[in-house]
Request: fold
Amino acid sequence: MMTDKHYLQTIFNEQNFNKEDLAMILSQYQRIEFAKNDYFIQEGSTANFYYFMESGFARSYVIDLEGNDISTKFFSSTDIVIDWYSYFLKTKCRENIQAITPCVAWKITFENFMKLFNIEAFREVGRTRLVNNYFELKNHSVSIIADPAKERYLNLLKSKPDIVQNVPLKQIATYLGITDTSLSRIRKEITDKK
Reply:
């Protein structure tokens, strides 16, 4: 039995794995620290790792055709930080993933990931994460088109309050598809109603 609880046991719950499989899984990940503004991956490179975020905040973003920096996703504790397309298909990333604050994460190479793929419970954790990421992306895409800006902000506030408290407003505004001035006005309206 492991004496010190490894951070990744919050992801890979020991009740779902036998001791040997869990030890094998934990041994394939490497702890890494990112300073504020360090990149997990940059546009144009190929993703060779994915990460489980232990602490800190990061975001993915793209530069649009007018040269604007647009946030596409935020990452915080227990999130998987990955460019799915690049990691699995070995294509070049179209986004950047950058630390907003100092971060601690656990990375795994594609080769080591594939070694673990024969463990059914490991595959199930991965499948669940992939499906959840898809639903989150789909909901965000539809929300940008169909929901008023205030509702988009309130949904983010409800689902990810830690992001709203720790991420610069300008980055949140681009994620919500609005200007930072509009976001400030929405935040003021909400505060005034309290």
Q: What stands out?
A: DSSP finds eight helices and eight strands in the chain. Helices lie at 19-27, 84-89, 110-116, 120-146, 149-159, 161-166, 169-176, 180-193. The chain has a mean pLDDT of 91.
